[in-house]
């Protein structure tokens, strides 16, 4: 481990090769590649913790509520279609006569709202599962609008008999066990009816709730409705534009929305204290009609939907995974820096010393991960970087015996970790910042080696 001057004259051919710059370069390059092994092991630890985190988040979502999709409301009206059939019959004497027959067909009409308004207040919540924090939400939802009763079969023929006592309104919700609170359906000027479990439409709306039309006033020109409920969920919240015209207004205090779905919002306002988003969607954007007969036609009300995800720009584990990706670069640049010290300052490091410095650099990511799971990421990064830089600096003091040279290494490592922190905080410009950092480092190294002699 003793330093030795690079000016010592080799005593033999093997000694000459061992002290040559080319051999030294290959040896240090091989050591740098060998350091990828502990770096890979650190990456595996990060991957395992990421898996445990995602498992914990999925477990929280299973009990609190999954991603919610709201569909409806849908008005379902059974009716009896009365048809008079006129047939011509010929008797045994050859005389013909016209015979009328009454035919009654039981049918069920599905009707979508003429106008639908979806108002949602999405309130962020945090739930702990062990050391992991899960971002979830509670949403206060109101569905309002009106149905167009002029589309009912009774309007086209007075002989059609509407069976209102068996009619119902259904609303689809993807995860019904997470419904927190409901209020009665408000109908017309003041009548209301309680909500009941299930949609009674297993193929159209597999899960949700419904309200009976039995006690509601159906002699209305404008059949207005209002449905309010509270639902828990995680990750995202979406709606299906079932109205002939659908307007949706979302409000939340979460500052990082990611608008998803088939149709983007027409207006958004995203600020540090939350976001507001508005959708205006006409019925021509979808592929199903305003009314159809149940059992005769099949339509997918979930085919077209829009909404938002509560997006975390750079999560804890994503930051650490990105940091590990720069590990090979860190080890390579650090080894290269020490190697330049060798050839410029005529000081030689032992291969074991290179290996121990590489291990210290690899340990940074384990320290960062273990601390970041307990405290804020910026503090964890500060402690992990300080510990790593301090250990390497103290180690090089005992090797170089020069305060000035050690200060150069201290400033280099500190600057490297500071730049890595800035890159990790970026999202859209991380690659640009990384490329710029690499170019600056190369320029500095080129400046430091500009006076190297060819026979060194």
From TrEMBL:
Pfam families: CreD. GO terms for cellular component: plasma membrane. It comes from the Bacteria. The keyword Oxidoreductase does not apply. The chain crosses the membrane at residues 21-41, 326-344, 351-372, 378-399, 406-424, 430-448. InterPro entries: Uncharacterised_IM_CreD. Keywords: Membrane, Transmembrane, Transmembrane helix. NCBIfam families: PRK11715.1-1 (NF008712). This is Cell envelope integrity protein CreD.
